[in-house]
Amino acid sequence: MDDIMYLKSGTDIRGTAFSTNGKPIDLTAERLQAITYAFGTLLQQKISKFEDVKVAIGYDPRISSRSIKMIVANVLSAMGFEVYDCGLSSTPSMFMSIINHNMDAAIEITASHLPMEMNGLKFFTAEGGYSGEDVKAILSRASVKQWNGSKCAGNINKLNNMETYCEGLRNMIKKGVNADDYEKPLKGLKIVVDPSNGVGEFYITEVLEPLGADTSGSVAVSPDGRFPTHQPNPENVAAMNSISEATVAADADLGIIFDTDCDRSACVGKGGVPINRNRLVALASYIALSDTPGGIIVTDSVTSDGLTEFIEKNLGGIHRRFKRGYKNVIDEAKRLTFDEGNVAPLAIETSGHAAFKDNYFLDDGAYLATRIVILAAALQKEGKTIDDLLRPMKMPAEEKELRIKINRDDFIAYGNSVIDAFRDFADSTDGLSCAIMNFEGVKVNFDKNNGAGWILLRLSLHEPLLVANCESNNHGGTEIMLELFSSFLKDYEDLVLPF
Fold first, then answer.
1. Residue 176 is part of a domain; what is its CATH number?
2. What pLDDT does residue 497 have?
3. Same domain, yes or no, for 12 and 81?
4. Which of 194, 195, 345, 499 could, after both became Cys, cross-link 288 (CB 3.0–4.6 A)?
């Protein structure tokens, strides 16, 4: 029995795909065959269909992606599935292959923003992305059911799915802007794009340029699985500096950056100020609530107090902080909408995962970018900018994130015991109080004499870490709060403190 459950990463399968510095390979050909075989057998049960099952496969530009694609395609084809090779593809486009081309399922080969030696698999059916439980079931079966069938490829079809996907984005912009020159609605707009050397070059060549936008000055354009320019992650400081500098250098109206597989994005206003994390959530909320007044915006747990005030007072919406993890916020928005009869038009993480109700609750960075482009074109007609919209939002004076390593095998139980103790510490300390509405870890509020802010302590989703997010309304406030926090943690010998 091959114990491969550790390859589960949230709702994906991820591991080392080629060796660097002697690091062992996790995604061996044998394991990939077993995983694909398990996926195929469970897929037939999931969709209650055993014949003429169509599966589309796409991949990002990582060095290992094409070889993994061939292994996956060969196994599925030998099992009798109709396999469609979509070539270099964004993750959201693979879900859209189910909508646009009547696929029964889709697979994207990617490890998102992780280093180049990593790779992985994302799975979709018409219900959306696979859940963590689905991935567990695949890995569990793959641990005991090896693939013993043919290693030769059957008939593998070609499908230009990205062409259809890009046409949909272009039509969105044409309809949304509704310019006098309907076919060239972006004429006069300068938009630079940083695809992070991932899949996102298509957004320049197949979406913006055909509609008249000037994209000169774009950077990190060519797909390159070594990611030579910067980490392909809109949360990364160097990545955001890259698109900010490119936007200013080109005197562009807007800058857009994607992660490797384009399920996340962020942007930059005309002056080069980053619009990511809380500012990106605010901008996406403005767009969503313009269509759905009074709706509920579901975010992860680390969003700021200023964002809540902006959503509720300036935009007239309702802000619901939920658990970290893009699938968690999406599932909560779906529950509020479909089970409780509320309207939640947007589920979004500060990481840049944004899922609109009117786009199948699919976290799609190119769709978010497209909504922002439409808004930027409308604002330009009025002589306004995106920064003008965000100016009323109060930003914290300081914010920090601390990652605290847990040196225990039972790190989940131990981490939860520390969280419980921090809750008790807050209840017994003057000037501190626990937030009532909180769905992850413990959020402790500090009054004006103790730092004027809050600390959210939670377990990492994937690693043996406690993560402390800290926000203060006063300069120097985080230092005061962290001094109290440090006094609480000092007796926990199995924690590696970063301060």
1. 3.40.120.10
2. 87
3. yes
4. 345
